[in-house]
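Good morning C.,

I know you're traveling, so I'll keep this short. The sequence:
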Amino acid sequence: MKSEFEIAITQLSADRNLSPEVILEAIEAALVSAYKRNYGSSQNVRVTINPRTGQARVFVKKQVVEKVRDNRTEVSLAEARTYNPEAKLGDMVEIEVKPRNFGRIAAQTAKQVITQRIREAERDSVYLEYADRVGEIVTGIVRNVDSRSRNVILSLGKAEALLPRSEQIPGEHYRFNQRLRVYILSVERTGHGPQIIVSRTHRDLLRRLLELEVPEIFNGTVEVKAIAREPGSRSKVAVAALQPGVDPVGSCVGMRGVRIQNIVNELHGEKIDVVEWSPNIETFIANALSPAKVLNVYLNQEEKTAKVIVPDRSLSLAIGKEGQNARLAAKLTGWRIDIKSETEAADEIAKLEEQKREAERRARELVEARRAAAELLAQAEAALAAEEEAEASAEEAATEAEGVAEPELEQPSAEEGVAVAAEPPQEETPAEAEPSAEEESAPVAEEAEVLEEVETLEEPTAEDKEVAEELEEESLEEEEPFDLEELEEEEELDLELRAKKGRKKKDRGRELVFDERLGRVVARKRHKRKGQHGWEEEWDEEDWEELL
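The tokens, ready to paste straight into the viewer:
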């Protein structure tokens, strides 16, 4: 027959859903705390309770010493051997004590500690229970709705769960004592116990509801491949049969839609489309757009996009209200879907063909232009090569002609010598040394006029006639061999004289000026001023004598 203590422990463990051992450990810890509060916290105390009778025994550990100074922590060797005959100095001996005056205050402290320990043990058991149930569906009862934050507190029996506003179905209203099926999102340990967060908008809530309502899904005959959900509005579920001969869509819908209707009622009228999953992406996309009929599906594997062609009358049905059907189909398949009607597709195909033809035409024109450019380049290279060959041949011919003409030097006659002496020297003045290309391109007419003036002014003088007669007489009288060096020396003297005269005559008719158009100094013809018969500058007799 059970004692009253044993019956009380059993009843308490049943109410709190705790084991009797946990309750006994809590009572022992409470008695230890009460003893230390009354007799000092420095003692090492241990309490044991008989689970049948409820009798408590208190043991205190003390150190064996020769001379006792503190009775609470030390004991003499003689007294220690009464409890343990083998005790020695320095050992720890456990001695049973029977505290007196363990009154109302100690009992109240023990009660508080027992209650606290039982509550903590209960929280730990609740946390361990629901921590393993994350991802499952549970049924809760609405206990409170916060008017300001709109958060809902649900009672799960032994624990309470929080349904935040972000996890509530839009447009759904909750009332007191209403029963709801919720999905456990997370369980966290806090100072006030475990905090359980539940959801009504998670897509796995629909999966768990299907497992509860459809035996084929629960048994594994039919598998849920993918779910796309917009809470409170519409959802799409892709299912596939793992056993031949089983209709996955029919199993989920049930006879006359009874199974799927129960889930719709649980989600407060949320529409659910059940489609068949297919390993062929084109077929799966066409099924995902149901109830619209699909004609063709074109895939772009690189960008993971699909272009879907539907009849003109099914375009709005395929897109859905505010694009909801196409959006859910894209979430379900994981592909970006572009929906076109037959007319739009035909116009787009015609436009693409026109663009293709235009691109081909431009490509042909580009090829022809490149070919023509290549031909022109080849012709230019050939002309350049021919010109270079002609220049090279001309240079070779000129070189050969110079080589032939050098050994055939003839002795000039007296008349030729006079003519050579009469020619103006070709020495360059400092201002006209090394003329550039721009100086060579000066007007030809201006140079012709200057040369005519020099020729008219340069008339043979008496001295020139005498020199010519002497040369002619010497050439007639002397019949000595022709000396080329003496002739060259005489020619150089005559050329120096003529050059001096020619410079004076030439400088008299030209002046050096800066040409702004050419950007350099050039020699130009001097012009007479109006009303004057002479040059701009008046020459004195010394200048004329030097010139003559």
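Safe travels,
E.
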